[in-house]
Amino acid sequence: MMIRPASLRDLAEMDQVALQAKAYWGYTSRQLDHWAEDLKTKPETIGAWPTAIAEVNGQVAGFAQLDPTVNPWELVSLWVKPEFMRRGIGGSLLRHVQAVARDSGMPEIHIDSDPNALPFYLACGAIEVDAVAAPIEGQPNRVRPQLRASTSGA
Questions:
Q1: What is the Cα–Cα distance from 10 to 69, expressed in whole angstroms?
Q2: Structural domain of residue 43, as residue ranges?
């Protein structure tokens, strides 16, 4: 696996990775359609915000992006293609962006997590600090965990 900076030519593939990764958790196609725009990476953030691509044998396996315009910086994307999940790619991407944030003076990053990703982030050392109501059809009590992850160990 290789981690490299993202470029605009990666954008379409990044959007596909995000949609495939979100769909992995069994959300309905109607719900995925509702989230489709939010799952897209804004072109103007490529190059302006720390954005990393993980490649395996020349194929995009996942990506991560930080929003450095807020304090603490926020992990706005961390997606891994389903066929590459559970191979350490997500953890490598998270450590990579934590190191970028640390090197820029950020002691921690904020993570607004999908509930299905909570075990991953906790296993990576993040701490749950809050939750935001995020009901969807069929899950009226759904919440999105809010986490903080230290950058010191990255």
A1: 22
A2: 2-106
